[in-house]
Amino acid sequence: MYRIVSAIFLAENIKKFEIEAPRIAKKRKAGQFVIVRINPNGERIPLTIADSDPEKGTITIIAQGAGKSTHELNRKEAGDSIADVVGPLGNPSHIENFGTAVSIGGGVGTAIAFPTAAALKEAGNYVITINGARSKELVILEDEMKAVSDEAYITTDDGSYGFHGFVTQKLQELIDSGKKIDFVLAIGPIPMMKAVAEVTRPYGIKTVVSLNPIMIDGTGMCGGCRVTVGGEVKFGCIDGPEFDAHQVDFKNLADRNRIYQHEEHEADQAAGHKCNLTGQA
Amino acid sequence: MDARTITAKERMAIPRQKMPAQDPVERAGNFNEVNLGLTPEQAQQEALRCIQCKDPVCIAGCPVNIKIDQFIKLIAEGDFMGAVRKIKEDNVLPSICGRVCPQEDQCEKVCVIGKKHEPVAIGNLERFVGDYERTSGQKIDPKIAPPTGKSVAVVGSGPASLSCANDLAQYGHKVVVFEALHELGGVLMYGIPEFRLPKEIVHEELDGLRRMGIEFRTDVVVGRTITIDELMEEEEFDAVFIGVGAGLPWFMGIPGENLVGVLAANEFLTRVNLMKAYDFPKSSDTPVFDCKGKNVAVFGGGNTAMDAVRTAKRLGAEHAYIVYRRSEKEMPAREEEIHNAKEEGIEFLLLTTPLEFVGNDQAWLTGAKCQKMELGAPDDSGRRRPVPVEGSEYILPIDMAIISIGNGSNPLIHQTTPDIEVSKRETIVVDINTMQTSKENVYAGGDIVTGGATVILAMGAGRTAAAAINEKLVGKAKNFDEW
Ligand SMILES: Cc1cc2nc3c(=O)[nH]c(=O)nc-3n(C[C@H](O)[C@H](O)[C@H](O)COP(=O)(O)OP(=O)(O)OC[C@H]3O[C@@H](n4cnc5c(N)ncnc54)[C@H](O)[C@@H]3O)c2cc1C
Ligand SMILES: Cc1cc2nc3c(=O)[nH]c(=O)nc-3n(C[C@H](O)[C@H](O)[C@H](O)COP(=O)(O)OP(=O)(O)OC[C@H]3O[C@@H](n4cnc5c(N)ncnc54)[C@H](O)[C@@H]3O)c2cc1C
Ligand code: SF4
Ligand code: SF4
Ligand code: FES
To answer: Which positions ≥6 away from B416 have C-beta within 8 Å?
Structure first.
């Protein structure tokens, strides 16, 4: 069992947890994730390690309620325990001084991008962060992002805060303003990552995305996390989770992530949650 | 009949005892074990069929050289616990090997009785003995040497690791097993289904190992959570055994393989066995493709393929197919499982190869374009090579395709421990006499060395390594029995 040290909501449906996992805290690098199992009947779900404190022996994860398992996690409080936390999994982000690096996060993707943005800053990059949310209440990690950015932008779809529009529009604006951008990291919903890839492609800007295929073991055994990159089969957990955005087959990822939608939907409904797809109970 | 007075003629007149099994129609609808085990009377009858050869060739047929003639003699005499003890000198997991060993290709293949009659049912007898120990309440707790002060880290908890850990503990070393998953047992837990190997049995064997003082730590991915070097330098283990199994399932590389509904057998079986997805959504949160009334095809002909297809049938598939490019004779699966699968209504499409998967506009799989094959001239392996029959293509309508054509090797360990030498296939290279890798005090065995093989070979490798590790750490061992 792994004890939760603190648990606070960052926004509606997005919760941040500090969990005791000393070995992982010591070892993790930006870009890596853990697989957690909330209870003994639980599913194994991947979550990015947003931060860690090797002295305290804790790691931080930030989860958005999507289906049964993440909703259940988000009901946990400080002092509760979860059954399993395994990691750090996946390859660490490739960090170097690219020059000017833009980190783009969409929704909970902001949390996933945060550690890598911080590492890019540490490596000497001029870091620009663009973080998008649907509306003001859903903006997360604003201060943390500011602290690691040379320029920090927030965008909201409804214009209730920051730049009115999508992260890609802000990115395009920066490119159009003549800023020389050397590296882009984009993490968020699949359509967002795909859109970012299309923005940077014509300019040949090196762009990396962190993919979120369905996973079980995270050790390369099951093949569930396979993605198509550059026309080849790659395993998200062993070869990723970060890949060259210009090589990723996003449609295939989106299609494959729907495989258990029918079954998951029924489970979540049975557990009495509001449906994220239709908004109905 | 009495073991001492029985005549040769009487022996030969005893038919091979048939193991009682669940009715095929009934069992195709549940996950309970198919075979029910020999009764004590049957076991004794079967044991009498063994003529106690002066030169028991069966022993050489067993990869761990179980003293087959001797344990069978003890069964015939009714000394079942004696038989347990005898087997356990060479194999610590008889209940498991008796169930899953490909006996017909090993010990039973060379049994002399098999020349004229059916061979002695060595595997079934081994299973009987293992189960007798488990259920009779008279556990044999193995002898353990006084502590040596040395400690060994065992990576992975499949059969290679478990047998290695067992022997190391008997030699008196402190043993800690590190497993990546949340459950122990490797393929025994996540691959081989309940209906062939009840998980209860694996749990009981693990309890036995715990009683010997072996420590188990789950949720540790060696290479990620901790490296081999750190195990030796920071955690001060004197030696490491690597038994991480195969990994990285292969795909066929044909068009449409990334459609929704095409998955590796490992994923399907892991969902069902490890994550108990057959209980979804009631008491498991992990879903599996809803097979009810659907057509499911498994591509491949090994044990994994048989397990996957029989699992799909049990989950309610209307048609559950095996699609295999050679003929039944070439199938690598255990004979018994092929037979059981047929009884359960699995449809075998032999000499058939998929060319491409086709789907609908939602990217869901709808079928496999297949081509018939015929057997041509033998290839290098001596097996007749299948050659395509021109113009024989057709679409097999299916809702789920399970790929079961084998595995590559898990790269995590050698990626993070560059001084461990691997082959071109990325299997770990060892000295087969000691299972030592290119790295000092690091040993390896099982599927990570051989590529996908068998439980008993993995166990044999674990034992060889344990003996070599012991010799390295404290010098030549005495026999376990001498303590
Ligand atoms: C490497 C990696 C890192 C991740 N990091 C984070 C993180 O830091 N914070 C966070 O909130 N989420 C993260 N995710 C996504 C998270 O794992 C999924 O949201 C979670 O598995 C959904 O489980 P569930 O039972 O709650 O929902 P389900 O009921 O399983 O699914 C709900 C919806 O999400 C889709 N879905 C299922 N699995 C995934 C998946 N792996 N990724 C995306 N969508 C999925 C389903 O198709 C369905 O539409 C990460 C995923 C990966 C692969
Ligand atoms: C579905 C299926 C059916 C089979 N049926 C039969 C059969 O009937 N008869 C037979 O003889 N053989 C059968 N086999 C083959 C047999 O199971 C294997 O040959 C055997 O299990 C190999 O044992 P192992 O100890 O090498 O590895 P495994 O059993 O694969 O165990 C390896 C363990 O190591 C863990 N691990 C992996 N990487 C790491 C890491 N980095 N850190 C920590 N732990 C790690 C894994 O999670 C796993 O638990 C079958 C295999 C499958 C998949
Ligand atoms: S372990 Fe396998 S090969 Fe050896 S005697 Fe038992 S069934 Fe036969
Ligand atoms: S070869 Fe057959 S008959 Fe001879 S000892 Fe072995 S099991 Fe008995
Ligand atoms: S999650 Fe199973 S292989 Fe990647």
So the answer is: B223, B224, B227, B228
pLDDT in the model for residue A268: 67
- Which residue's C-alpha comes closest to atom 6 of ligand 3? B123
CA B179 to chain centre: 18
Which residues does a 6 A CB cutoff place in the pocket of ligand 2?
A 219; B 100-102, 155-161, 178-181, 186-187, 191-192, 221-223, 243-245, 269, 303-304, 307, 334, 410, 412-413, 446-448, 452-456, 458
Tell me, yes or no, if the pTM score tops 0.80. yes
Are the C-beta atoms of B170 and B142 separated by less than 8 Å?
yes
Q: Look at residue B480 and tell me whether its pLDDT is greater than 70.
A: no
Q: Residue B460 is encoded by which pair of tokens? A: 């044999």
**Over residues B219-227, mean pLDDT:** 95
The pLDDT value given to residue B479? 55
Q: Is the pLDDT of residue A31 over 70?
A: yes
pLDDT band at B405 (very low <50, low <70, confident <90, very high): very high
* Closest by CA position to B417, among listed B432, B403, B406, B428: B428
Select from B275, B277, B276, B325 the least CA-distant residue to B305.
B325
Pocket test for ligand 2, best of B303, B420, B449, B463 (most atoms within 8 A of CB): B303
For residues B220, B222, B225 and B228, what is the CA-based torsion angle, rounded to 10 degrees? Answer: 130
Burial class (CB in 10 A: 0-12, 13-18, 19+), A20: middle
| Among protein residues, the one whose CA lies closest to atom 5 of ligand 3 | B62
**Model ipTM?**
0.89
Tens of pLDDT, residues B173-204: 999 999 999 999 999 999 999 999 999 999 98
How far is A191 from A140, CA to CA, in rounded Å? Answer: 20
Phi then psi dihedrals of residue B322, to 5 deg = -105, 125
Instruction: Tell me the shortest Cα–Cα distance from B341 to chain A, in angstroms.
Output: 24
Q: Chain B: residue nearest A259 by CA?
A: B260
pLDDT at B279: 76
**CA–CA separation, B296 and B60 (whole Å):** 40
Nearest atom in ligand 2 to the alpha carbon of residue B304 is: 1
The verdict on A220 touching B (C-beta cutoff 8 Å) is yes
Give the mean pLDDT of A251-258. 88
What is the layout of strands, in order, in the sheet containing B151-155?
A: B215-217, B174-178, B151-155, B239-242, B442-444
> Which ligand is closest to the CA of A46, given by its number?
1
Window 111-150 of A: residues touching B by CB (8 A cutoff) are: none
State how far the alpha carbon of A126 is from the alpha carbons of A12, A103, A180, A243, B34, in Å. 32, 11, 11, 22, 65
Which residues on chain A are in Cβ contact (under 8 Å) with B259? 255
Under the banding of pLDDT at 50, 70 and 90, the label for residue B217 is very high
State if residue B97 touches ligand 3 by the CB under 6 angstroms criterion.
Answer: yes
Mean pLDDT for the stretch of residues B26-41: 89
**A259-274 confidence digits (pLDDT tens):** 887 777 776 666 665 5
Q: Is the pLDDT of residue A161 over 70?
A: yes
Which residue minimizes the CA distance to atom 4 of ligand 4?
B53
Segment B376-398 shows an average pLDDT of 87
Q: Which chain A residues are closer than 8 Å to B264 by Cβ?
A: 222-224
Residue nearest ligand 1's atom 53 by CA: A212
What angle is formed at CA B376 by the lines to CA B370 and CA B382, rounded to 5 degrees?
115
Cα A55 from Cα B252, distance rounded (Å): 47
- A contact residues 24-83, partner B, Cβ 8 Å cutoff: 24, 27, 37, 41-44, 68-69, 83
Contact A220 B247 (CB under 8 A): yes
CA A257 to centroid of chain Cα atoms: 15
